[in-house]
Write a structure and sequence with these properties.
heterodimer, A: 108 residues, mainly alpha, 4 helices, B: 429 residues, alpha+beta, Naphthalene 1,2-dioxygenase Alpha Subunit, Chain A, domain 1, Rieske Iron-sulfur Protein, 2 domains, seven-stranded antiparallel beta sheet, 9 helices, 26% helix, binds FE2/S2 (inorganic) cluster, binds fe (ii) ion
């Protein structure tokens, strides 16, 4: 069953990354291997120009369900970009004993 | 050779007369000193507990656990639209009045009145006791004598403050020149709020130290820039555009070339597409300001990027050129632990792409914050070893001197009042 807008059907294999909250997105990042993060990034990053053009056409509150899921998916790409582009590991280096948890965020 | 002009005296530190000697960190590792700070600072100064937008209608309330001040408060918008704060205690037999599930956890909501969970006494939104269960079983009890105990509450630019000290100066006076310089900034338009919370294993002042100097930025955060840019940043180091000190408060004004960057190759691939990063979304929303308030970018420097204000003791406001705001709060829970809150405020995004750009700024803040907090426990434990007791601070660390000196002065003043003689735990020169 399609969960993303039709133009983004190629990203359906990664629809598990369409996650509504930052906390859960970050948890999935920490629970993933670098190979998994890299695979998601390699699929989603080249489609980002197209995705942002799509998102630019819609207000956050008038996105349809598939559009909301696309926005969630790209919020996950933001979260995943740090391990892939910067850290080369899922966790921020040396942050073993600390956490910074989202307690308030605007719903999408 | 400074890139940005320093004051006549040759340094900001000497200009503000803060002393140039090494400082002791005994004030951050002594349980006894922390107990003094609780009474001398957290029960005497204006504490920011939230914003007016958190109380959108009559009956909106939230609680705050002010462990450092040895209390809990409930802040509520009354039927007359006034914002008031009360100590969160029932007048019957002292139960905490407003809480859910866990008495130590904060809560919020909307109500018509407050009802105690224990024996059902009720209070209206202005704090008056309106109902006593089996009132005629009591002896000469007059409900009028049993209202909630209020504490001083005031609002500065939409930020709600409380103060436990009846003799403290007015809030607007306390906020001083730095507070006055921000008057009229449209904080109220930035209603898109993301808040992060962290339990940190260090003294509260150590995290403020980390966030009031950018000397660490080119080193600790080196990897967050692309490699070549990072090398350049480390060679240049960090210099502020300006510092200001007014009474217990201080600010640092910074350049910020990344919003947008001069050259797209200076930033990470995702930032090139999203047009957002540490300095916020590059496409700044219109916030209706023809000119910056006088307190912002005091050097009126064209490279200005952001100003960070520390309002003593534990409230920081960062205002970015790209029209968004960050606040930091540090709530001590013991001499070597505290709760940190970082809150990002944006204008509501004009479309879903702008929402994604805000997400990028917020998540970048979190990645930096995690790097900043990871050094704190490491610093706290080694300071506690007392192997080294005095530490040099450079001119870009001026606000650390101000913070530790101010905190000491409050403790000394308190000791003079209560014991007659100040006993200094250490000398922060
Ligand atoms: S303690 Fe609140 S009603 Fe008894
Ligand atoms: Fe930092």
């Amino acid at each position: 069953m399609a969960t993303l807008p039709a133009d983004f059907a190629d990203l359906e294999p990664f629809s598990a990354w369409a996650i509504p909250t930052e906390r859960a997105r970050y948890a999935k990042r920490l629970a993933s291997t670098m190979d998994e993060l890299q695979a998601f990034y390699d699929a989603a990053f080249p489609r980002m120009e197209a995705a942002t053009s799509y998102l630019e056409q819609h207000g956050v509150n008038d996105l349809r369900e598939d559009g909301r899921r696309l926005l969630w998916l790209y919020c996950s790409l933001v979260t995943v970009s740090f391990p892939v582009e910067v850290w080369r590991q899922p966790r921020v280096p040396d942050s073993g004993s600390c956490a910074l948890d989202a307690v308030v965020e605007p719903a999408i | 050779m400074p890139h940005f002009t320093k004051p006549r005296e040759g340094s900001w530190t000497e200009h503000y007369g803060l002393g140039t000697g090494p400082i002791s960190y005994e004030d951050s590792i002594s349980p006894e000193h922390y107990e003094l700070e609780r009474d001398a600072i957290f029960r005497r100064t204006w504490l920011n507990v939230g914003r007016v937008e958190q109380l959108p209608k009559k009956g909106s309330f939230f609680t705050r656990e002010l462990d450092a001040a040895r209390t809990s408060v409930v802040v509520v918008r009354g039927t007359d639209d006034e914002v008031r704060a009360f100590y969160n205690i029932c007048r019957h037999r002292g139960n905490k009045l407003v809480w859910n599930d866990f008495p130590g956890e904060e809560t919020s909501g909307v109500c018509r009145q407050f009802a105690c969970k224990y024996h059902g006494w009720r209070y209206d939104l202005e704090g008056a006791c309106t109902f006593v269960q089996q009132e005629d079983e009591f002896f000469d009890l007059d409900k009028a004598d049993y209202g909630l105990v209020s504490l001083r509450t005031d609002v500065w630019e939409g930020f709600i403050f409380v103060n436990l000290d009846a003799d403290a100066p007015q809030l607007h006076e306390y906020m001083g020149e730095l507070g006055a310089g921000l008057a009229g900034y449209p904080f109220h338009k930035m209603t898109q709020v993301h808040r992060y919370r962290s339990e940190v294993r260090s003294n509260w002042k150590l995290y403020i130290d980390a966030f009031t100097e950018f000397y660490h930025a080119p080193v600790l955060h080196a990897k967050q820039a692309v490699a070549e840019e990072s090398r350049k940043l480390q060679n240049v180091g960090y210099e502020a555009l300006a510092y200001k000190v007014d009474g217990p408060h201080g600010m640092v004004s910074s350049w910020g070339g990344m919003s947008p960057p001069k050259d797209l190759n200076m930033v990470k691939p995702i930032e090139r597409i999203l047009h957002s990063g540490l300095f916020g979304p590059w496409d700044a929303p219109d916030i209706g300001l023809d000119e910056l308030p006088p307190g912002l970018n005091p050097a009126r420097h064209p490279a200005w990027g952001l100003d960070s204000f520390l309002f003593f003791p534990n409230f920081m406001v960062l205002i970015w050129r790209t029209n968004w705001v960050l606040t930091y709060h540090y709530w001590p829970t013991s001499y070597n632990t505290h709760v940190f809150e970082g809150t990002c405020y944006f204008v509501p995004p004009k479309n879903a792409r702008a929402r994604l750009a805000q997400e990028m700024a917020v998540v970048t803040f979190k990645e930096y914050g995690l790097q900043d907090s990871n050094t704190l426990e490491a610093t706290q434990t080694m300071l506690e070893s007392r192997v080294v007791t005095e530490f040099p601070l450079n001119d870009q660390e001026i606000l650390l001197r101000l913070l530790h000196k101010t905190a000491h002065e409050y403790v000394d003043k308190h000791l003079r009042k209560t014991r007659g003689t100040p006993v200094r735990v250490s000398a922060a020169s």
